[in-house]
Structures are given as C-alpha cells and as structure tokens.
Specification:
about 400 residues; alpha/beta; Rossmann fold; 2 domains; 9-stranded mixed sheet; two-stranded parallel ribbon; about 35% helix
Length: about 400
C-alpha cells in the first residue's frame, strides 16, 4: 500500500474522490468546498459516515494542512455544449479559477487535478484554460490537459471528458492512454443484485408511454417490452430512444398524430404535428423519449435517469441501477432519494474513468512516467497523441497554433 496523502475540493457526489480513495488506499484527509455545493456533497459525507473533515471555505473553513494530491470536480456546465449559455463567460467557470487560486496558491500539493466538460480542452475553453494555466505558472506548476471519453475507460457511455492536471515543478509527465473493453449497458443494469434503493426513479411503466406504445403496437404489431428489448440491436444514440426509433422506421409524426387521436392520447396530437412541421421545414428536434438500453448510451445526464428502462422488466431504472451506471459502490446511498436529487448522480465522473486518471497520478508520483521539459501538454486519448511546448517556444505560440 502506498503512503500518498490526498484530499478533494468540490467533489460533488464523489465519483472522483471515491476513485482516489480506492487508488491511494485511504479516505481523503479532508474535503474542501463552498456552501452552494453542500446539498450535492451530503451523499459523499454520509458514505464516509461523516468521518472525513469537511471545510466550507466561504464559511470560514480552510485546509488544515497540505497533502500530496488534491482532486476536484468543478461544475462543468460553463463549458458544456449541453448547457444553455455555455462559453468562456459562463459564471460556472469561476469555480475552476477560484479553486486553482486557492489550492495552487495556498495549499500547494504536489499534484492538483480535476475534471470538466470536453469543451475545456477545445476552442470554447481557451480563455479559462489560459487563466488557470497562468495561475499554475505563477505558483510553480506545469499543466497538462487530457481529452478522453468514458467509453475508452470501460464505461458504456459515450461521454466526452476533459481532465486537467497541475504538477509541482518544471516538468510535465506523459500519461498512459486507454482503450478498455466495456460491458454493454444492459449487462451493467442486469448486474445489480442489491435490494437497497431499488425503487424506480420514474414510477410509470414504459409501455404506458404513448410513443413507446406506438412502437410496440403499431410498428411491431403488439410486442411486449421484453420482446422489443431482445429484438433490437446496437444503434446510434440518436436512434435509441422512442422518437429516434419511430423516425428510423420511416414513420412520420403526422401518422403518429392520427394514431394518438384515435387511441386516447389527444394531448399528444398538437405535439406530434409540431414535430412533423419542424422536420418538414428542415429543423431539428430534441429527442428525449423512452430509451431501451442496448450496448451503450449517451452521457448519463438529462432525460436518462427518468427515461432509461430496464432491459427485461417493463419499468424504468432504479436509483441503485443509476448509481451503478456511474460506478458508485453498491453500499453508496443517495440521501433523500427522489427525482430532484437524482441529478446529483449525473453531475459526476464515472468512478472507472476517474480511477484510470488517479492511477496515472500515482504512477507519476512513484516515478513511473516519462517527464518532459515543458510547461504545458495536451494529450488526446482518442488519437493517443500529445502536443507540448518545447523550451524554444512560448506558451502563447502554442495556443496560437
């Protein structure tokens, strides 16, 4: 067992903090946060029996001592294309800047690392990226950014992620790349054996949903949920939900509207006609319908907790199954489990993804990774290539390229 000490700041529900605890072999020395996040973090505090010291920085708390490693999961909505008003000016970006200033300027660990939306590693994250890189530079740290997706870490989600790392000193490591096989999402859900928190998040039956009923009764002439789930094969994320599947099978929403009118769903007629006209005019639709799990899903956010079904049973997934999808331990509890709190599960890093990154941090501290004489490195796990600034060039010229 190693003797690496670690802590976390803004862990939210705790996927990254739990991964760090598993990799480093101990709970964090302490948790740092801000008052606005306490509702998200009550689940993690409860998981560790409220035994890990919790310091709220804007309520007078502060880190009691330094540690080797500090991790963070700052809110990523500011740089996520899935959010309204995303971009450099989004107020959610302040948390990356605020935490970097405090951790790198005051606590000074050997490594500070965090996770954010894929946009952080791209064009829309350029300003924030430069700001926190300069904070690191002013405090004696190099920086690396690692672009990846959870599918490459054995997680059945097409979920793009960016990780950022600050390394004390003047060199930056080259981290390993990953392409792990993943367990199909339907098998992940079937693997849940715990009876704890096994209440469906959405209490309705999938087969009672008007659009899914159309698929079962009209497109497939009276199929059951189990028969449909067994019949379908892997498809694109767009085609996986009820709306996408209806379109994929060549049915238009004018036909669907007529069926809705004749089969006791008059409230859906105008909605169907709106969809029909929107598509006829060349527009696009937000598709968030009943989704039957097959092979993999998109990022487990938005409609998924409420609309993802069990692969065999005519019901939606449970709280426990949602937590399992994100890799949370089988004894992890969602405090005050309800449909409002369930989004806390989504605002998270899958534990498996975070574990790979935590193991890389450990390998660097153990001297097992090649160190490069550069202040900044960008690694892309999709292409398994890295770019970095050489001593002959400036960081400004790197960004300009």
């Amino acid at each position: 067992m190693n003797n690496i000490s670690h802590a976390t700041i803004i862990p939210l529900i705790g996927g990254e903090a739990i991964a760090s605890a598993q990799v480093f072999g101990s709970r964090p020395d302490y948790i740092l946060s801000y008052d606005v996040f306490k509702n998200n973090e009550k689940h993690l505090l409860n998981y560790w029996n409220n035994e890990v010291p919790y310091y709220v920085l804007d309520k007078g708390g502060k880190a009691p001592h330094t540690v080797d490693v500090i991790s963070s999961v700052c809110p990523c909505a500011g740089l996520s294309l899935l959010s309204q008003g995303y971009g450099d000016e989004n107020e959610n970006n302040q948390w990356m800047i605020k935490t970097a200033e405090y951790i790198l300027g005051d606590v000074k660990p050997k490594v500070f690392w965090g996770e954010n939306a894929p946009g952080f590693a791209g064009k829309i994250g350029k300003t924030v990226r430069e700001q926190i890189q300069n904070i690191g530079k002013d405090n004696g740290y190099t920086m690396s950014v690692y672009r990846t997706k959870s599918l490459l870490h054995g997680v059945a989600q097409i979920r793009e992620r960016s990780f950022y790392f600050f390394w004390k000193g003047d060199k930056t490591p080259i981290l390993n790349y990953f392409n792990r096989p993943y367990t199909p999402i339907e098998e992940v859900i079937r693997s849940v054996t715990s009876n704890f928190q096994q209440e469906p998040i959405n209490k309705k039956k999938p087969s009672d949903n008007a659009y899914y009923k159309y698929i079962l009764n009209v497109i497939h002439d009276g199929m059951t949920h189990l028969e449909y789930s067994s019949m379908i094969g892997p498809s694109s994320v767009r085609d996986a939900d009820a709306f996408g599947y209806i379109e994929k099978m060549g049915h238009n929403y004018k036909q669907v509207a007529e069926w809705m009118e004749a089969n006791g769903h008059p409230e859906e007629v105008d909605k169907c006609m709106y969809k029909y006209k929107k598509l006829e005019e060349g527009g696009s639709l937000m598709r968030r319908g009943v989704t039957v799990p097959k092979d993999r899903i998109g990022a487990f956010v938005g409609h998924y907790p409420m609309m993802l079904t069990h692969p065999d049973e005519d019901r939606f997934i449970t709280y426990r199954e949602a937590m399992t999808i994100m890799g949370l331990p089988s004894d992890f509890e969602l405090v005050d489990a309800n449909s409002q709190n369930v989004n806390h599960i989504c605002q998270n890093v899958p534990v498996q993804t975070a574990s790979d990154m935590a193991r890389e941090v450990l390998a660097v501290l153990e001297g097992k990774r090649t160190m490069i004489d550069t202040p900044y490195m960008l690694q892309n796990n999709h292409t398994q290539k890295e770019e970095y600034v050489t001593p002959k060039h400036t960081l400004e010229s790197f960004y300009a390229e």
